[in-house]
Amino acid sequence: MQRLEIKKITNEREIKYWKNTDDIKKIIDASSGCWKTINILEFYIGTRISEALNFDFNFVDFGNHTIKIQSDGTFRTKNRKFRIIKIPQYLEKHLLELKKERSKNRKIKTIKTAIYSNGGSPNTETASSYLKKFYKKQEFEVFHSHCLRHAFAAQYLLRYKDIYGLSKILAPFGNCCGEILRTFDRELL
Fold it and tell me: Is the domain defined by 18-188 classed in CATH 3.40.50.1820?
């Protein structure tokens, strides 16, 4: 049997993720509008940018405190499968406030969560470009939005050392216990 060798990363710049919750809090606090929603979705539940942009209120079951990340209409998740996870308290609070705010604006006809105040929504290229510049302005020069997904995964592994559990959260048909998300809630609220 051939031995597998994995290159050890020695340069910290190669590891692109936020390493502590203070940095995440800085990003979330500095962002607003649809950008805040995208940042929260990406960090709290590990969505990809395309999933965050296509996330809508129909994906949320507030009664059961769950979210279903799924393909919808013309949007397809990366592997075309869905996953159900517990909704973190911080994200649930944000989405409830967003829904209440939207109900007051008759111009907005969409149920998507990441939209501009006029009801339009950014596309993936626009969002990626804007967020990259935004992170640079916040002194996270080499970061992009997908790094929030990496930060979520890294924080989970640091706390629980459970790669199987992480795979169930980030992969299709995953159904996580939500403890890691509650931990993030306590640190970020």
Answer: no
